[in-house]
Design goal:
Elements (H helix, E strand, L loop, with lengths): L2 E3 L22 E4 L6 E2 L1 H15 L5 H4 L7 H5 L8 H15 L5 E2 L3 H10 L3 E5 L4 H11 L5 E3 L7 H7 L2 E6 L2 H10 L2 E5 L6 H7 L3 E3 L5 H13 L1
Parallel strand pairs: 2-5, 2-7, 5-6, 7-8, 8-9
Antiparallel strand pairs: 1-9, 3-4
Helix pairs in contact: 1-4, 7-8
Length: 229
């Protein structure tokens, strides 16, 4: 199993007044969406190609899907002048349900990772930079059941939702996800299935780096055992 603990990451402190004999409280795990739970590259590529054809503006869709994670506006800024970005973002999001949902696949182990959280008495939430209605469409289409879906949050801003929902763990593939977890005071579990290499994720402060979500249930078992002790 490709699992690496980051020795430089601080470990969560015990809660004041906690007792080793006490039952652990229900826990919440947050998951990123693109390249963590879903491989949205085929769908996003298709949506960009339609937008390019409609507008007559060249978009290198193959390049765009290699840097998923940051908000849509940041990618559109590579292809459109600043004043057109709000319009193009609206149009892209309108095209998205028709062209991007069906081609998108679940990442290996995604359903099992979410199910593992719930099987152990936890809640699984999705916190993503993606347009929230489209994020929900992806999860519904792929049969990935989350307790909550919160969209339009990127990097440190993800901490808002993680704190609100009491997430103690956040799983993501991008250094922005690591920053969001650390800002929220949550354990950062990174998967190297997106654009960021394991060393880059560790350097950003990830507490744990996994090869993919296939490794997550085994890690969660160990984490829950440590938490119970």
């Amino acid at each position: 199993m490709a699992l690496h603990e980051n020795p430089e990451s601080p470990r969560p402190a015990a809660s004041p007044g906690s007792s080793p004999a006490a039952s652990p409280a229900p826990f919440t795990v947050g998951f990123d969406l693109d390249m963590t739970l879903i491989d949205s590259r085929p769908g996003i590529k298709a949506a960009y190609e339609v937008l390019s054809a409609e507008t007559g503006t060249f978009i290198d869709a193959d390049l765009a899907v290699t840097r998923l994670g940051p908000p849509l506006d940041e990618e559109l800024a590579h292809w459109f002048p600043q004043e057109r970005i709000p319009e193009m973002a609206d149009r892209y999001r309108a095209l998205y349900p028709t062209h991007a949902i069906h081609p998108t696949l679940a990442m290996p182990g995604a359903r099992e990772a979410v199910a593992a959280v719930r099987a152990r008495g936890g809640r699984a939430i999705v916190v993503t930079a993606k347009h929230e209605p489209n994020a929900k469409l992806h999860l519904e289409h792929l049969g990935i059941e989350a307790d909550e879906v919160i969209g339009w949050l990127w990097a440190e801003a993800k901490a808002e939702a993680l704190r609100e929902h009491g997430a103690s763990v956040y799983v993501g593939d991008h250094v922005g996800d690591v920053r969001g977890a650390r800002t929220a005071g949550a354990l950062s579990v990174a998967v190297s299935t997106g654009p960021c290499a394991p060393d880059e994720l560790r350097a950003a402060g990830a507490d744990v780096v996994l090869g993919g979500l296939d490794d997550f249930p085994r890690w969660l078992d160990a984490h829950c055992a440590e938490r119970a002790a």
